[in-house]
Amino acid sequence: MTLHIYDTMSRNKQEFIPLEPGKVNMYVCGPTVYDYIHIGNARPVIFFDVVRRYLEFSGYQVNYVVNFTDVDDKLIRKADQLGTTVPEVAEQFIAAFNANITALGVHQATLNPRVTENIAEIVAFVQELVDREYAYESGGDVYFRTGKFTDYGKLSHQNLDELQLGIRIGVDERKESGQDFVLWKAAKPGEIYWDSPWGPGRPGWHIECSAMARKYLGDTLDIHGGGHDLQFPHHECEIAQSESVTGKPLARYWMHNGFININNEKISKSLGNGITVDELLKTVKPSTMRYFILSSHYRSPLNFSDEAIAQAENSVERIANCIGNLKHRLSVAVSAPSDAESHLRIRIGVIEHGFRSRMNDDFNTPDAITSIFELVSEANQYLQRTVVSVEGLELLIGAFNKLDQVFGLLSLEQEGDILDTDIDDLIVQRTEARQSKNWARADEIRDLLAAQGIVLEDTPQGIRWRRK
C-alpha cells in the first residue's frame, strides 16, 4: 500500500516519495516559549506525533525536528512583566511544554533546536540573502526584498498585487516595499541582542526556521508541517528565504492542520476563551484528549465542547474495558487453541489491512479509529465463548498494542497513581478479609480502590477490575 499526503502547495493528494528511500526528514514549527501552550497548540503537537509514529510504523527512519523560538518580542515583554531575563522565561516555558507533551503521550522529537543556539547560522543565512540582493539593510534592520522572489505567494495561492491591496496605510518608511519582511531586528535599548554585520540585534521570526531546517535537515525537507495559520505569512516567507539561497524546493510535502474552536467560537484572547493544556489535564484524561484530536480529520476544523470530550472519554473507556476483559480472561484461559484462532488470525489481518489503508489516505485518523472498534467487536465476540485460549487472547491483545503504536491511547489509559500489581494485591487482600468476615478491612480496601478510580466487577471467572 502507498501513502498519499494532501500537499498544501499543490492542493492535491500526492504519493509520498521521500528524497532518500526509507528515511523521512520532517520539520514542524514549534512553540514560541513565552507562556503555557493552549488547546489549539495541542492539535499539531498530537497530530504530527501520530504522523511520525505512523511513518515509523510503516518502516521509515524519521528525523523529526521541532524548534523552540526562545527569543522574540513576546518573550521580551514577558521578561519585563516578570522582572526576569529572556533566557529564564524560555527555560520556564520549555520545561512546561515538555511536561505537557509527556503527559499527552507525545514522543520527544529527534531534536528541539533553539534560536539562541543557532544565531551564527541565522546571521550567515541573512548574509547570503544580502549578498544575492534578496535582502537589504535599513537603519540596522535587514529586510527581505519580496518583489525579487517571483514565486512569493505560491503556497497560500496569493499574488503580490493582492497582498499590496491588503497592506494598510502607513507602511514603515524603512522598507522598500510594504510586503518586505524583517530578517534581522536592530536591538532597542535594554533588549537582549547579538552582534551582526548590521549592528546589535536579533533574528526575525521567519528566518529562524529557514536556517535551522537547513542546518539540521538539509536544503529540502520531506515534510514541513504546522497549523493552518502558519501558511501565511510564516511558511510563505520561509519558502522565499530558503529557495532564494538554495534554488531548491524547501519541502516536498506541506501539511497544515485545521483550527480548534471552543463551543463553536474561534480561540481568541479578546474572547478570553483559551484553555491551557495544564488546565485541561486537571479534568480531562490525556488518552481522552488524544482521542478527541484524532477523531476528526486533521485538515478539518475541530470543535471543543463538553459533549465532544464526553464522547471521546466514553470511546476510550470502551476500548480500555475490552482490553481489560481480554487480560482478565488470559489469567484463566486454556493453553490449547481451537479452530476459532484461525478465524481470528484472518480477521485481525483484514482489520490491520483496513487500518493501514485508511492511514495511507492522508492520515485519515477518524476512519482509522473504526479499525480499532472493529477489533473491539471481534474481541467481544471471542470473549462470549465459554472457553478461550491463551493464543487467541494474546493475538487480540497484540493486535490492539500494534495499532496503538500509532495512536498512543492504551499506554496513557493504563497509567495511574497505583500500579496494576498493587491493585491485584489489594483485591486478594479484600477477598481474604471478606472470607474472614473482616468487613471493616474489606470496605477500607474497596474505598481505597474507588478513590483511585478503580471499579471492581464480579464475573463468572472471578473479580476483575478496570480504571474509570
UniProtKB/TrEMBL annotation:
Read off the Pfam families from this record: CysS_C, DALR_2, tRNA-synt_1e
Q: Which family does it belong to?
A: Belongs to the class-I aminoacyl-tRNA synthetase family.
Record-listed Zn(2+) binding positions: C29, C209, H234, E238
Sorted keywords for this record are: Aminoacyl-tRNA synthetase, ATP-binding, Cytoplasm, Ligase, Metal-binding, Nucleotide-binding, Protein biosynthesis, Zinc
InterPro entries per record: Cys-tRNA-ligase, Cys-tRNA-synt_Ia_DALR, Cys-tRNA/MSH_ligase, CysS_C, Rossmann-like_a/b/a_fold, tRNA-synt_1_cat_dom, tRNAsynth_Ia_anticodon-bd
Report motif location: 'HIGH' region.
31-41
| Enzyme Commission numbers on file | 6.1.1.16
Protein name listed in UniProt: Cysteine--tRNA ligase
* Cofactor, how bound (note): Binds 1 zinc ion per subunit.
What assembly does the database describe for this protein? Monomer.
Question: Catalysed reaction(s)?
Answer: tRNA(Cys) + L-cysteine + ATP = L-cysteinyl-tRNA(Cys) + AMP + diphosphate
* Major place of residence: cytoplasm
Q: Name one GO molecular function term.
A: cysteine-tRNA ligase activity
